[in-house]
């Protein structure tokens, strides 16, 4: 255990700034969990007040990778913001990118062709699977099952291969553009998606049979880190964590974007809001995502892979090299010299771990005047002390990994 | 998948003067060989690069092939600090403390643009490269670097380990280096 | 399944104006969402009413953030609340404006537990003081941060720093 409690920087043993009495110190132990603790998967610090093995009080400290996304976004042209959104929830960055494109499209009033919507749905659902693979296999690791992680991670690699085929990058994909995509899906993309849809169910099934009804796993996760639906609502939970508590809120259904209304899928809902329910909700969402991808592939409409917005969508390279108009448009877009309308928009997408919202204020300039990112795990992580109060230390670790708190998104 | 993995068991060892029943070589070469092939890395993963490190560790890329599968989460028992991801100013002192806790000999890889130079995050809150607080041996470029690049970084570190003189850590130059970082 | 009483933007506009005619500065619709600008002292009454209204039931605080408009004299700072009514599936946006010299805003933590960190973040970024907040401290940056970085007068990079080596960047 890495004990970072020296006085040479700001981590103190006091909770909420209260000075503990002598008696408190004799009766309770203070444990400094993090910021670099092997069990926390990212950098979160919690000062835990422990009565033996029971957590009496916890105080999280965050911000260890605060990277000033919101300030950075105010200094970048619209099309360059994707590099920031990429690094929000980096387990499922395509969802963030597409969320940003949708925000700008909403501001501009761009109508995308159906084909673009369906292509985006395919990518977003792949990203959701990739996100849930990490989260769930890490939950399994924290209960002691490393095998599952090593096994299902291979299929994450296959999803990376699909991203690479689409846009050339693995993790921080920068996928798509305002108005659509830079190119159509190639034949190889479809082959790889089909291969994934064929192979992955077997692996996922195996993973489930390894873990889901496993006595040890169930004992470790059921009734651990519970939160009621009412408290979850008060804490503005979203995503699988809220659904595990029993509230059927999913942005894809409540405020459909990218033609999600065309698809037929169910929203899994838990009942007790504990770690096991969160695990199961994510697991079921992966099955549903595969179903959505199948539907999207089956009904993929013909058409263009980008909207017809020459002011914002980079012209094809032949035009840039051979025509004057193409070169001018290219230059104007790249230099960010296109006027955007003034206005305020809020666009949200169902990210890997909840409602990812973009509140964009535009003053007509080349950069956003203000971009506020509604980062789901920043908002729900504040319930963590309440959720682990009275539980064991090892359960606290498990609760954290099952909440899918991603440091990049948490700290912005 | 159809290919059988080629295991190279006859890779070149240290230079040796071999006779009947014995071999003569320098002690530091043997020590270097042992160090290089049994690295205990401490993954200091903060953000995106950490996910790529997970991929490096997992079955497809398998860090274990290079003798580095035993991740040591305690800095006291690690000899390679792998810093992966953005280090904010708030995290700087923590990183330094982890580094000072490590026992000699120790090496550091800065994985990814953020750890190497601050990357795209040229902002008020981000440390512009971890070499502002601790000495770094190998920089791996990329945002994030693909697993192949991380493996390449590990191989570079192995080269350093193999060729390090035994007394380097006692040398005045090394002490001076640490002193310039206010460590010691 | 549409209920007869499902409120839309015009319904909300009517209801809010009926109840708080004197507290609302402006109310208009943009990109399908209602923007309600209210006077600062009426924040708690309006939000409480929206949350506890029998039909509207804005029980979910989606987000809370600050904005800095250096050009608008006397209204330099703004706090924006996004509320969501799950029952009716409708969102609204509530704005309050304040001058640089009076940055005190009542806290929303009494109504929504989730407002806690969002308000801390807004305090950190803009220096807006939330009265009654249980623990209003800097949350993301180092604790001894002495300015509010998202205010427009501060640049993205810390001007006083010495840690960036410019020679590799051609500056």
Secondary-structure blueprint:
The complex is a heterotrimer of chains A (412), B (184) and C (171).
Chain A: H1 22-27, E1 29-33, E2 45-51, E3 54-61, H2 69-73, H3 82-86, H4 93-108, H5 114-142, H6 146-167, H7 187-211, H8 215-221, H9 229-234, H10 239-244, H11 251-254, H12 275-298, H13 317-322, H14 324-334, E4 342-351, E5 354-363, E6 370-374, H15 376-380, H16 384-388, H17 393-402, H18 407-411
Antiparallel strand pairs in A: 1-2, 2-3, 4-5, 5-6
Helix pairs in contact in A: 4-5, 5-6, 5-12, 5-17, 6-7, 7-12
Chain B: E1 17-19, E2 22-24, H1 27-36, E3 41-45, H2 48-57, E4 80-84, H3 92-101, E5 107-111, H4 112-117, E6 138-140, H5 147-162, H6 172-180
Parallel strand pairs in B: 3-4, 4-5, 5-6
Antiparallel strand pairs in B: 1-2
Helix pairs in contact in B: 1-5, 2-5
Chain C: H1 9-19, E1 24-30, E2 33-38, H2 43-52, E3 60-68, E4 77-85, E5 90-98, E6 104-106, H3 115-126, E7 129-131
Features:
heterotrimer; A: 412 residues; mainly alpha; 3-stranded antiparallel beta sheet; globular; disordered N terminus; B: alpha/beta; 4-stranded parallel beta sheet
Query: Which regions of chain B contain 5 or more consecutive residues with pLDDT less than 50?
Result: none
Order of helices and strands of chain B: EEHEHEHEHEHH
The oligomeric status of these chains comes to heterotrimer
| Number of separate strands of chain A | 6
Separation of the first and last Cα atoms of chain A: 27 Å
Distance between the amino and carboxyl termini of chain B? 49 Å
Helix/strand-derived class of chain B? alpha/beta
Biggest pleated-sheet summary of chain B:
4 strands, parallel
Q: Kindly report the greatest chain-chain contact and the residue count on each side.
A: A-C, 44 and 36 residues
Q: State the total count of DSSP E strands of chain B.
A: 6
Major sheet of chain A, described briefly? 3 strands, antiparallel
Principal-axis shape of chain A = globular
The helix/strand order of chain A is HEEEHHHHHHHHHHHHHEEEHHHH
Which percent range describes the beta-strand content of chain A? Answer: 5-15%
Main sheet: strand order of chain B: 3-4-5-6
Question: In what range is the share of β-strand residues of chain B?
Answer: 5-15%
Mean of all residue-level pLDDT scores of chain B: 87
Largest beta sheet: strand ordering of chain A:
1-2-3
Which outline of chain B best applies? Answer: globular
């Amino acid at each position: 255990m890495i004990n970072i409690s020296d006085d040479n920087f700001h981590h103190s043993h006091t909770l909420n700034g209260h000075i503990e009495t002598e008696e408190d110190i004799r009766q309770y132990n203070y444990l400094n969990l993090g910021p670099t603790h092997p069990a926390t998967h990212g950098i979160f610090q919690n000062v835990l007040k422990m009565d033996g093995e029971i957590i009496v009080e916890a105080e999280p400290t965050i911000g260890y990778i605060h990277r000033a996304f919101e300030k950075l976004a105010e200094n970048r042209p619209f099309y360059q913001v994707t590099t920031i959104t990429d690094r929000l929830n980096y387990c499922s960055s395509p969802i963030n990118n597409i969320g940003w494109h949708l925000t700008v499209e909403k501001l501009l009033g761009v109508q995308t062709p159906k084909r673009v919507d369906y292509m985006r749905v395919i990518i977003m659902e792949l990203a959701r699977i990739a996100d849930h693979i990490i989260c769930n296999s890490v939950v399994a690791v924290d209960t002691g099952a490393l095998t599952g992680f090593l096994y299902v991670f291979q299929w994450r690699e296959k999803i990376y291969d699909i991203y690479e085929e689409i846009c050339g990058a693995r993790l921080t994909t920068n996928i798509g553009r305002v108005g659509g995509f830079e190119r159509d899906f190639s034949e190889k993309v479809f082959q790889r998606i089909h291969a994934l849809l064929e192979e992955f169910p077997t692996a996922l099934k195996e993973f489930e049979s390894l873990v889901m009804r496993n006595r040890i796993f169930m004992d470790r996760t059921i009734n651990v880190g519970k939160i009621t639906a009412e408290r979850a609502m008060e804490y503005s939970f979203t995503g699988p964590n809220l659904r595990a508590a029993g509230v059927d809120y999913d942005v894809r259904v409540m405020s459909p974007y990218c033609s999600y209304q065309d698809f037929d899928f169910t929203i899994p809902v838990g009942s007790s809001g504990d770690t096991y329910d969160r695990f199961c909700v994510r697991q079921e969402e992966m099955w549903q995502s595969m179903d959505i991808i199948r539907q999207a592939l089956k009904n993929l409409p013909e058409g263009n892979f980008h909207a017809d917005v020459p002011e914002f969508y980079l012209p094809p390279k032949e035009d840039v090299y051979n025509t004057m108009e193409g070169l001018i448009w290219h230059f104007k877009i790249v230099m960010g010299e296109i006027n955007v309308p003034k206005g305020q928009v809020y666009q949200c997408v169902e990210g890997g771990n909840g409602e990812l919202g973009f509140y964009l204020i535009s003053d007509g300039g080349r950069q956003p005047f203000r971009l506020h990112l509604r980062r789901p795990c920043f908002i729900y992580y504040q319930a963590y002390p309440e959720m682990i109060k009275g539980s064991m230390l090892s359960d606290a670790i498990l609760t954290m990994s099952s909440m899918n708190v991603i440091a990049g998104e948490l700290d912005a | 998948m159809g290919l059988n993995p080629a295991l190279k068991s006859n890779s070149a060892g240290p230079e040796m003067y071999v006779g009947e029943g014995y071999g003569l070589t320098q002690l530091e070469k043997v020590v270097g060989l042992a160090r290089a092939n049994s690295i205990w890395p401490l993954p200091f993963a903060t953000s995106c690069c950490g996910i790529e490190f997970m991929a490096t560790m997992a079955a497809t890329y398998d860090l274990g092939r290079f003798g580095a599968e035993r991740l040591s989460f305690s800095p006291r028992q690690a000899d390679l600090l792998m810093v992966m991801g953005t280090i904010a100013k708030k995290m700087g002192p923590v990183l330094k403390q982890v580094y000072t806790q490590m026992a000699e000999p120790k090496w550091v890889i800065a994985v990814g643009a953020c750890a190497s130079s601050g990357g795209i995050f040229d902002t008020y809150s981000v440390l512009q490269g971890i070499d502002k607080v601790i000495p770094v041996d190998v920089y791996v470029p990329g945002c994030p670097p693909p697993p192949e690049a991380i493996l390449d970084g590990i191989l570079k570190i192995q080269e350093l380990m193999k060729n390090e003189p035994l007394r380097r850590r006692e040398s005045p130059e090394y002490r001076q280096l640490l002193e310039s970082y206010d460590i010691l | 399944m549409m209920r007869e009483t499902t409120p839309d933007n015009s319904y909300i506009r009517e209801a809010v104006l009926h109840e708080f005619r004197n507290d609302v500065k402006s109310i208009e619709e943009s990109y399908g969402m209602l923007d309600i600008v209210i006077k600062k002292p009426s924040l708690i009454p309006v939000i409480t009413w929206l949350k506890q209204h029998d039909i509207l039931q804005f029980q979910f605080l989606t987000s809370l953030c600050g904005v800095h408009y250096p050009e608008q004299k006397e209204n330099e700072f703004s706090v924006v609340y996004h509320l969501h009514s799950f029952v009716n599936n409708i969102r609204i946006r509530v704005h309050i404006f304040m001058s640089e010299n009076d940055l005190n805003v009542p806290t929303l933590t009494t109504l929504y537990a989730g407002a806690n960190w969002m308000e801390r973040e807004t305090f950190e970024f803009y220096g807006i003081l939330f009265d009654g907040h249980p623990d209003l401290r800097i949350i993301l940056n180092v604790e001894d941060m002495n300015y509010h970085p998202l205010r427009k007068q501060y640049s993205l990079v810390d001007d006083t720093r010495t840690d960036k080596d410019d020679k590799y960047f051609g500056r």
